[in-house]
Amino acid sequence: MAIKRILIANRGEIALRIHRAAQEMGIETVAVHSTADADAMHVRLANHAVCIGPPPAADSYLNVAAIISAAEVAQCDAIHPGYGFLSENAKFAEIVEAHDIAWIGPKPEHIRTMGDKVEAKRTAGALGLPLVPGSDGAVSDIGEARKIAAETGYPVIIKAASGGGGRGMKVCTSEDQLETLMKQAGTEAKSAFGDATVYIEKYLGNPRHIEFQVFGDGEGKAIHLGERDCSLQRRHQKVLEEAPSPVLSTEQRHRMGEICSKAMADMGYRGAGTIEFLWEDDEFYFIEMNTRLQVEHPVTEMITGIDLVREQIRVAAGKTLSVTQSEVIFTGHAIECRINAEDPFTFAPSPGEVTAYHAAGGMHVRVDSGLYAGYRIPPYYDSMIAKLIVYGRTREKCIMRLRRALEEMVVEGVKTSIPLHQELIQQEDVLNGDYSIKWLEEWLQKREG
User: Fold this and answer.
1) pLDDT of 336-358, one tens digit each?
2) What is the extent of the structural domain holding 139?
3) What element of type H or E holds 366?
4) How far apart are CA 154 and CA 181, in angstroms?
5) Which of 3, 24, 343, 425 has its C-alpha lying 20 to 30 A from 113's C-alpha?
6) Do residues 263 and 194 both lie within one domain?
7) Residue 164: predicted pLDDT
């Protein structure tokens, strides 16, 4: 099918990112927005704009009826959900397709399968992906839980089957804690996600978070676009990402990439996806799959030269992938800093008016942002306001360019996380690529102490 007009069911920098890709393909865009985002950059630049509700996301960006109505009124051929909001909502994807509108994303059944962490783990194992030792599925009986934990070996981690972001997760170091922590995890999961289901896994002591970008055509062909290292995290939220990982060899990258792409081919996966692993002692352990575009996708684009949003649109239109695996060539190094409107060290949100703005520039510097001087950052949504992505022929040159770019970046009127990134890339462990998912929180504690 030919896609001539896309509704962008999102906001902020990702909405602008999708708009730009569509425009370069000769496709019109329709921006939907809340009343709080009437002056947003993507709304200003889109070919058409439709207000879908008041500021709360539940009344606008999560309002399925309003989005579908906007798509029909604006005569859209397709909907791109971006990330967050409705991007991994299988029911929404089904509704979109039921209205004869192309869904720029994976098949609804794959979104549903990978959205349930217990089912995702079971599916991943069947597809040949390496798993963290633990329960085969949900665990509710304490006797069964004790048996699994003993076989796995303490410490173990109790996880919510639905959701993420660290909620419904409890680390258990001994049997006498297990029953209490299982109840706590289940209660948290029920409150946060409406589902008290939990499962048990081996708790890895000091792993890295390494994820592989995959892409399928929905017809049994799939490729991988290498890995990203997302180990610099705070409260399970990524802060800085880089590609390739400083710790993987070419052989490891090729081996795991082949395993991931074969799994997606066997699954018949369509569109962009990310398979996330914990990596420790040269071993990979599957944790989850995100059936959407990732915030950190630009670092992959920088080292491969492949526009992932363009590929998403092509596949949704029924076309095959524009590249084969042998045509994917990795060159250089890329790092992304997430810039949030918040205190750089207490992380308290800092919405408000941007009184001055200057994006960093120069060779191999990319800024994904909808900011401009005079823009008022609303308090209703995620605090991320920009992504600074830099590329270098080597990791060392990339870091030097990042230092310069961070110095150039100006966002006044609100507090931002720019000073945090400036300090991070001065730290010896970061410069050496010697960090795990625990490193940032431990460093912040030392800094405060």
Assistant:
1) 999 999 999 999 999 999 999 99
2) 133-202
3) strand 365-369
4) 14
5) 3
6) no
7) 65
